[in-house]
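Look over this entry.
=====
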Amino acid sequence: MNPENPLGDVELTDPRAMRALAHPVRLAVLERLNRHGAATASELAPHVGATPTVTSWHLRHLAEFGLVRDAEPGTDRRTRRWEAVGRGFRFAPTDDGEGGAAARALSQQMFLRSADLPTRWITEVEPGLPTEWRRLGGLADTRVVLSPAELAELADAVERLLAPYVHRDAGDWPADARPVRLMRYTLPEGEE
Protein backbone atom coordinates (compact mmCIF):
# COMPACT_ATOMS: atom_id res chain seq x y z
CA MET A 1 0.00 0.00 0.00
CA ASN A 2 1.34 3.41 -0.99
CA PRO A 3 1.34 5.63 2.14
CA GLU A 4 0.75 8.67 -0.08
CA ASN A 5 -2.26 7.00 -1.72
CA PRO A 6 -3.55 4.31 0.66
CA LEU A 7 -6.84 3.85 -1.21
CA GLY A 8 -5.05 3.06 -4.47
CA ASP A 9 -6.87 5.76 -6.42
CA VAL A 10 -5.86 6.74 -9.94
CA GLU A 11 -3.99 10.00 -9.55
CA LEU A 12 -4.92 12.68 -12.05
CA THR A 13 -2.21 15.27 -12.57
CA ASP A 14 -2.71 16.07 -16.26
CA PRO A 15 -5.17 18.96 -16.71
CA ARG A 16 -6.40 17.31 -19.93
CA ALA A 17 -7.38 14.20 -17.96
CA MET A 18 -9.24 16.31 -15.40
CA ARG A 19 -11.09 18.12 -18.18
CA ALA A 20 -11.90 14.81 -19.85
CA LEU A 21 -13.45 13.50 -16.66
CA ALA A 22 -15.27 16.79 -15.99
CA HIS A 23 -18.17 15.64 -18.15
CA PRO A 24 -21.42 14.31 -16.66
CA VAL A 25 -21.56 11.21 -18.89
CA ARG A 26 -17.93 10.29 -18.26
CA LEU A 27 -18.33 10.69 -14.51
CA ALA A 28 -21.46 8.53 -14.67
CA VAL A 29 -19.64 5.87 -16.73
CA LEU A 30 -16.72 5.71 -14.31
CA GLU A 31 -19.02 5.61 -11.28
CA ARG A 32 -21.12 2.81 -12.82
CA LEU A 33 -18.02 0.73 -13.66
CA ASN A 34 -16.63 1.23 -10.15
CA ARG A 35 -19.91 0.27 -8.54
CA HIS A 36 -21.10 -2.59 -10.76
CA GLY A 37 -17.96 -3.87 -12.50
CA ALA A 38 -17.13 -4.44 -16.13
CA ALA A 39 -19.73 -3.65 -18.78
CA THR A 40 -20.18 -2.92 -22.47
CA ALA A 41 -21.15 0.47 -23.86
CA SER A 42 -24.62 -0.92 -24.57
CA GLU A 43 -25.02 -2.10 -20.97
CA LEU A 44 -23.84 1.26 -19.62
CA ALA A 45 -25.86 3.49 -21.95
CA PRO A 46 -29.25 3.35 -20.19
CA HIS A 47 -27.61 4.19 -16.86
CA VAL A 48 -25.46 7.12 -18.02
CA GLY A 49 -27.94 9.02 -20.18
CA ALA A 50 -26.34 8.43 -23.57
CA THR A 51 -26.71 6.16 -26.57
CA PRO A 52 -24.42 3.13 -26.87
CA THR A 53 -22.45 4.91 -29.63
CA VAL A 54 -21.93 8.04 -27.53
CA THR A 55 -21.12 5.92 -24.47
CA SER A 56 -18.53 4.02 -26.50
CA TRP A 57 -16.94 7.29 -27.57
CA HIS A 58 -16.76 8.46 -23.93
CA LEU A 59 -15.23 5.13 -22.88
CA ARG A 60 -12.49 5.47 -25.49
CA HIS A 61 -11.84 9.01 -24.29
CA LEU A 62 -11.53 7.83 -20.68
CA ALA A 63 -9.17 5.06 -21.84
CA GLU A 64 -6.85 7.65 -23.41
CA PHE A 65 -6.22 8.99 -19.90
CA GLY A 66 -5.87 5.61 -18.20
CA LEU A 67 -9.16 5.70 -16.31
CA VAL A 68 -10.75 2.66 -17.98
CA ARG A 69 -9.35 -0.31 -19.88
CA ASP A 70 -10.49 -3.41 -21.72
CA ALA A 71 -11.85 -6.05 -19.38
CA GLU A 72 -11.85 -9.79 -19.83
CA PRO A 73 -14.30 -10.64 -22.60
CA GLY A 74 -17.65 -12.02 -21.56
CA THR A 75 -19.43 -14.95 -23.15
CA ASP A 76 -19.84 -13.02 -26.42
CA ARG A 77 -16.27 -12.32 -27.49
CA ARG A 78 -17.51 -9.93 -30.19
CA THR A 79 -18.48 -7.30 -27.61
CA ARG A 80 -15.98 -5.01 -25.97
CA ARG A 81 -16.18 -4.93 -22.19
CA TRP A 82 -14.68 -2.12 -20.13
CA GLU A 83 -13.57 -1.83 -16.53
CA ALA A 84 -12.39 1.00 -14.29
CA VAL A 85 -8.63 1.04 -13.73
CA GLY A 86 -8.88 2.03 -10.07
CA ARG A 87 -11.48 1.95 -7.34
CA GLY A 88 -11.53 5.72 -7.39
CA PHE A 89 -9.52 8.71 -8.48
CA ARG A 90 -7.93 11.72 -6.89
CA PHE A 91 -6.69 15.06 -8.10
CA ALA A 92 -5.50 18.28 -6.56
CA PRO A 93 -5.93 21.83 -7.75
CA THR A 94 -2.77 23.60 -8.77
CA ASP A 95 -1.90 27.26 -8.82
CA ASP A 96 -1.23 27.32 -12.55
CA GLY A 97 -4.00 28.52 -14.84
CA GLU A 98 -4.75 25.40 -16.85
CA GLY A 99 -4.41 22.89 -14.00
CA GLY A 100 -6.39 25.03 -11.59
CA ALA A 101 -9.20 25.61 -14.08
CA ALA A 102 -9.36 21.90 -14.96
CA ALA A 103 -9.47 20.87 -11.29
CA ARG A 104 -12.23 23.41 -10.59
CA ALA A 105 -14.26 22.13 -13.57
CA LEU A 106 -13.94 18.54 -12.34
CA SER A 107 -14.77 19.51 -8.74
CA GLN A 108 -17.83 21.39 -9.93
CA GLN A 109 -19.13 18.40 -11.92
CA MET A 110 -18.50 16.07 -8.99
CA PHE A 111 -20.37 18.34 -6.58
CA LEU A 112 -23.25 18.73 -9.03
CA ARG A 113 -23.40 14.98 -9.58
CA SER A 114 -23.52 14.16 -5.88
CA ALA A 115 -25.63 17.11 -4.69
CA ASP A 116 -28.91 15.17 -4.63
CA LEU A 117 -27.51 11.88 -3.28
CA PRO A 118 -28.36 12.65 0.38
CA THR A 119 -31.94 13.63 -0.56
CA ARG A 120 -32.41 10.51 -2.68
CA TRP A 121 -30.97 8.36 0.11
CA ILE A 122 -33.25 9.79 2.81
CA THR A 123 -36.38 9.44 0.64
CA GLU A 124 -35.67 6.26 -1.35
CA VAL A 125 -33.19 4.09 0.55
CA GLU A 126 -33.32 4.90 4.27
CA PRO A 127 -37.01 3.99 4.79
CA GLY A 128 -36.33 0.43 3.59
CA LEU A 129 -33.22 -0.21 5.67
CA PRO A 130 -33.22 -2.35 8.81
CA THR A 131 -33.10 -0.31 12.02
CA GLU A 132 -29.43 -1.08 12.73
CA TRP A 133 -28.43 0.32 9.32
CA ARG A 134 -30.71 3.38 9.66
CA ARG A 135 -29.05 4.21 12.99
CA LEU A 136 -25.59 4.09 11.40
CA GLY A 137 -26.51 6.08 8.29
CA GLY A 138 -26.99 9.79 7.95
CA LEU A 139 -24.61 12.66 8.20
CA ALA A 140 -22.50 14.64 10.57
CA ASP A 141 -21.70 18.31 10.24
CA THR A 142 -18.65 19.06 12.34
CA ARG A 143 -16.81 22.37 12.19
CA VAL A 144 -13.18 22.36 13.28
CA VAL A 145 -10.45 24.99 13.13
CA LEU A 146 -7.34 23.60 11.45
CA SER A 147 -4.18 24.71 9.71
CA PRO A 148 -3.56 23.42 6.16
CA ALA A 149 -1.02 20.94 7.57
CA GLU A 150 -3.52 19.67 10.16
CA LEU A 151 -6.24 19.27 7.53
CA ALA A 152 -3.83 17.29 5.34
CA GLU A 153 -2.92 15.13 8.34
CA LEU A 154 -6.61 14.51 9.11
CA ALA A 155 -7.37 13.57 5.48
CA ASP A 156 -4.40 11.16 5.45
CA ALA A 157 -5.55 9.56 8.73
CA VAL A 158 -9.06 9.01 7.34
CA GLU A 159 -7.66 7.38 4.19
CA ARG A 160 -5.37 5.11 6.21
CA LEU A 161 -8.36 4.10 8.33
CA LEU A 162 -10.48 3.31 5.24
CA ALA A 163 -7.78 1.52 3.23
CA PRO A 164 -8.14 -1.98 4.77
CA TYR A 165 -11.88 -1.93 4.02
CA VAL A 166 -11.39 -0.59 0.49
CA HIS A 167 -8.85 -3.30 -0.37
CA ARG A 168 -10.63 -6.20 1.32
CA ASP A 169 -11.55 -9.09 -0.99
CA ALA A 170 -15.21 -10.06 -1.36
CA GLY A 171 -14.47 -13.42 0.26
CA ASP A 172 -13.43 -11.59 3.44
CA TRP A 173 -16.65 -9.57 3.77
CA PRO A 174 -18.76 -10.44 6.83
CA ALA A 175 -22.03 -12.21 6.05
CA ASP A 176 -24.08 -9.15 7.04
CA ALA A 177 -21.98 -6.66 5.02
CA ARG A 178 -23.47 -4.36 2.40
CA PRO A 179 -22.07 -1.54 0.28
CA VAL A 180 -21.81 1.77 2.14
CA ARG A 181 -21.06 5.04 0.42
CA LEU A 182 -18.91 7.38 2.51
CA MET A 183 -19.05 10.91 1.18
CA ARG A 184 -16.40 13.18 2.59
CA TYR A 185 -16.86 16.86 1.92
CA THR A 186 -13.95 18.98 3.03
CA LEU A 187 -15.06 22.60 2.74
CA PRO A 188 -12.64 25.21 4.09
CA GLU A 189 -14.64 28.31 4.96
CA GLY A 190 -13.95 31.76 3.56
CA GLU A 191 -12.71 34.69 5.58
CA GLU A 192 -15.36 36.24 7.83
Q: What stands out?
A: Residues 129-192 form one domain. The longest strand covers residues 81-84. The radius of gyration is 18 Å.
